[in-house]
Each structure stands twice: as structure tokens, then as C-alpha cells.
Please model this.
Amino acid sequence: MNAFSAILKNGPEFESISLDLKNRRYPFGILGMPPATKNLMIHTLCSQTGRGAIVVWADEAQAVKCRDDLLTLGANAVFYPTRDFDFYGAQASSHEYEQMRIKALWAVLNDPSTVLVCGAEALRQRTMPPQTLKNRCFTLKSGAQITTDDVRRRLVAAGYSAADMVEGHGQFALRGGILDIYPPNEQNPIRMEFWGDEIDTISYFDPISQRRTEPAESISLTPCSEVMLDSAETMITALNELKNGLRGKSASAAKANIEKTVAQAEAGIQPGDIDKYLPLAYPEPATVFDYLPDAFLLVCESGAVREKLINADKQMNEEIKALFTEGVLCRGLDNYAIDFSKVLRYYETRDTVYIDNFTRGSFDTPVKDLVNYSINQTSRWDGSFTVLKEDISPAIRGKYAIAVFAGTEKGAE
Model:
């Protein structure tokens, strides 16, 4: 896909961009970028510099499309979904997106050249600090001396749930000396066979046929929960301290809710409302910014991103206020995201590039350069030869060489 990047890089506009990069003139803006070209520009910036990036869009549909385009172009890209905080402990809530977030964070920790793509809301939300994620991951090797009970305890502490048979990420199943685990950071589950207190073999297997596919010498396991305290005892102590310090008209309701959580923790049950204890687990706020401190910050359609961030601020503040009244949240359980002013400080201090289609009156922060492209994006082809012919006829008359790419071989025919 380097040929596509070469089209951008061979123009005078990219010469200006290269000078901005070389001289570190951040933030700067790139204008005249229709949607498909934005993703090509992101790939070109990262591939030329060998750097990772945090790419933020107003909504997640755009972010997913960007991630898919970057993968097609050959970039190492991951999607980081927005967290839907469960403050009530809905029993039927899915952990799929939570595990996707952990997988994305683990990817950028292991490879800082990774491109992390997210929506505006996900950008501002708090998560576990990078060092906590590193500490919560552990590696098991073939030949290691460890009991199945020890591994099981470590899995439960990392948020894994026991099952009769592993069918999805975050599950484990123990049958005698055979332990199946489905880590969030792996495409397929793994099977460990123990010989006494020693790991005899490790292998991947197909979750449908249950047949082993390939052996492995070792496996790294990431946690399955974003909110983890060191132990049940630590959690109980922290909850009781929080409860004893509550005052005010909603204190009695808040204390009753905390007492329910304490009872669950004492019974060895993972609380269903664990999300709301994120500030208790991690007093120091951490976001995706902390995972990629030296990466580009690429803001796509900054006006729409700004509107989304401000609205998210207002909505969360209103929700927290209502939950305070109900006693679901309380003082100390009220910080789940950074506000727009903090995001702006990251815009000012990081290597930020605004990538927009149309010219705005101004950006969210002063820019040190503006690079204008004049790119004409044609309408969707959708398989109509007549439409395609009309779109490329000016280029034919200009005697340009034309390459038409289709998504499949059949489409090309």
C-alpha cells in the first residue's frame, strides 16, 4: 500500500507537513481531507515516522472504519471502545467491550508504534494505569512448577470466571489436570495439561472442535477486568473506610449500597457494580493518554470531536448528580473521566495534528501551521459502470493512467 502513501508524499503539501514534523511545529492542521483520505494520511504519518498514534473521531462508527482502513493499509491498528459504566450492577451485562479495551491497551503497551483509534468519549474515560496492567499480567511456561489451584486463584483475581467449558474470552475451565483458559489478548483459547504440580504442555485449541491446533512454550495472560483491587481484604477495608467517612442526607442510602458490596466481597463474589469503584481502585487518574505518551495525537474533524466531548461532560455530570441523590454514588466515587479542559491541555502539550475536511473559523488550540489539500472525493461507485465511467472520464481526457481497485476479485471482473 506504499503506492497510495506515495501519492500524498510526492505533493508540495506533504513537504510542508514534513517540515512541521521535523521542526516539531505542533499543533498544526491539515485541511481538505475527505474521510477516506484522512485514514491514508494517518497511515502515511505513522509509517514515515515509525511512531504510534492516538486517533480520535467524534463517534465510534467512524473510528471502527478508520481502524479497518488502517489494517488494510498494513498498519498495526486497534480499536478502543467506549466504556458504558455499570453503576447498578446489571447481572446480564456483557464483558466483551471491556475485554476489547484491555486487549487494545495491552497491544500499545507491547508496541508503542501501534495506532489506537477511539471515539471522543473513550478518549476522556479513566481506566487502569499502565503499570497496574503490567503488574496484573502474568506468564505461564511449560515445565513451570505451579499447582492448578494457584493458577485458578490468580485467574479469579484477574477477573476470569469459571465455566464448564470455555466459550468466550475471560473464561476458564478446570477438569482434573487439564486447565482451559481464554485470555482477552488471544484469538484462540489455550489448554494446559498438568503432571502433578508441573505444567506439562501448553497448546492452543479450537473452541468448537476442542482439538489442539498448535503448541506453545509459554502464554501471557492479561486481566479480564478493568477495576481490580489487590485482594478481597483490601477491597473490604477500602469500602469500610469510605462508608465510615460519609456524611449528608444521602449518606444512609450510600452506606447501605456499600454494605451490600462488602457482603459480596466477603462471600468471594465479584461485585456486579464494580465499575463504580474505579476511583477507589486507582486514586491517580489514568486514560489512554498515559499508554502512548510519545505518540501522535490525531484529531479528526475537531469541531465534531469538541461537541461530543462537551456533551459527554454535561451528560456524565448530570448522571453523577442523580446517582448521588439515590445513594448509588457518593463522595470519593465521582471521578470517571477527565473534562474537556484537561483534554485541551493534552492538545497543547502533545504532538497534535488536526485533520479536517473543511476550514473552521479556528481550532480548539492555536496552530503553528495550516496545510491545505485540494482533493476531490467522487461519489460511491456501488458497481455501476455508468457512474464509474462518468467519474473517471475527466482523467481519461487528461491522458492520466488510471488504476481501479475493487474489494474482491469478482468485483474487479
